[in-house]
Amino acid sequence: MPSATGNKRVRGVSVFRPFIFGSVAHPFDPEQKPEDCPPDHTHRWQIFVRGINGEDISYWLKKVQFKLHETYAQNVRTIEQPPFEVSETGWGEFEIQIKLYFVPESNEKPQTLWHSLKLHPYGPDAEGMKERRETVISQNYEEIIFNEPVEPFYEILTGGSPGAPAGKSKGKNTRQPAQSRTANIPSGDSPGNPYSRVTENKELDRLAEATQTVEQMIREEKERLIEKEKLLAELRESEGVPANTKKR
Ligand code: SLL
């Protein structure tokens, strides 16, 4: 149990931590289906919760409970340490409930997410992907926000990793200043990690462009409306108001 001081909240502070959750599905090659899986299973898949670019998130995430479809034996799977993932085989898509449990120092209640397991390719090249038997990835970037965390948890969230490698200076082994924990995401993309500042900025540019397009469309629509109203007024002037719309 956290002590009374451990329950003191750091006022006015919100700390967020990014992570990814989702699924990866690999269709079986009918010629090389694993022998140990039921004949109607068509895919191997994984559901996971992980840090961006493989970053350790176990300093705030204690365990993850994945609730699979009832057709699975022991469908509630609890993963107590990283990697927080479940690997299974199956034939159908379904919603997976993901419950995040935080480290005890956090004094936080668990939080629930949902993920739609995707086995079949989707998007513009779905057919091609299916033919090439490509891996189907469906994942989301998410941020968890700890509002006014309790002090010990704030320390954990922002402090260094206890196992930070020792650095060398003047020939002596000295402890490296604790590598500080932050919510930073990598600046550039790398294979397997699409979540970076570069992608974020591209997305922001795309949104700004889309906003401009929509604003331009609204302007044009307004101009059209003004034109139409002008025409209507002129018609009313020249033709008079139709009988059935005349005010009594
Ligand atoms: C569907 N509503 O009809 C979904 C249900 C169930 C998925 C999908 C196999 C489990 C097993 C499996 O893939 N279940 O029998 O081992 O598409």
Describe what this molecule looks like in 3D:
The longest helix is centred in the last third of the chain and has 43 residues. The radius of gyration is 28 Å and the shape is extended. It is 23% helix and 29% strand. The N and C termini lie far apart (77 Å). The chain has two domains: 180 residues, Immunoglobulin-like; 47 residues. By secondary structure, it is α+β, with helices and mostly antiparallel strands. The strands form three sheets. It has a four-stranded antiparallel beta sheet with strand order 5-2-1-8, with no helix packed on it. The site of ligand SLL has 9 residues, from loops.
Q: What's the architecture of the largest domain in CATH terms?
A: Sandwich
State the name of the first-level CATH class of the largest domain: Mainly Beta
Distance between the termini: 77 Å
By CATH, the superfamily of the largest domain comes out as YEATS domain
- Overall pLDDT score: 87
The small-molecule ligands in this entry are: ligand SLL
Strand content: 25-35%
Q: Can you list the strand order of the major beta sheet? A: 5-2-1-8
Major sheet attributes:
4 strands, antiparallel
Number of strands: 10
Taken from the alpha-carbon principal axes, the silhouette is extended
Q: Which stretches are poorly predicted, pLDDT < 50 over at least 5 residues?
A: 161-178
Counting helices, strands and paired strands, the structural category is alpha+beta
Task: Indicate the percent of residues in helices.
Answer: 10-25%
> How many separate domains?
2
CATH topology of the largest domain: Immunoglobulin-like
Radius of gyration: 28 Å
Number of helices: 3
Q: Write down the secondary-structure element order.
A: EEEEEEEHEHEEH
Oligomer classification: single chain
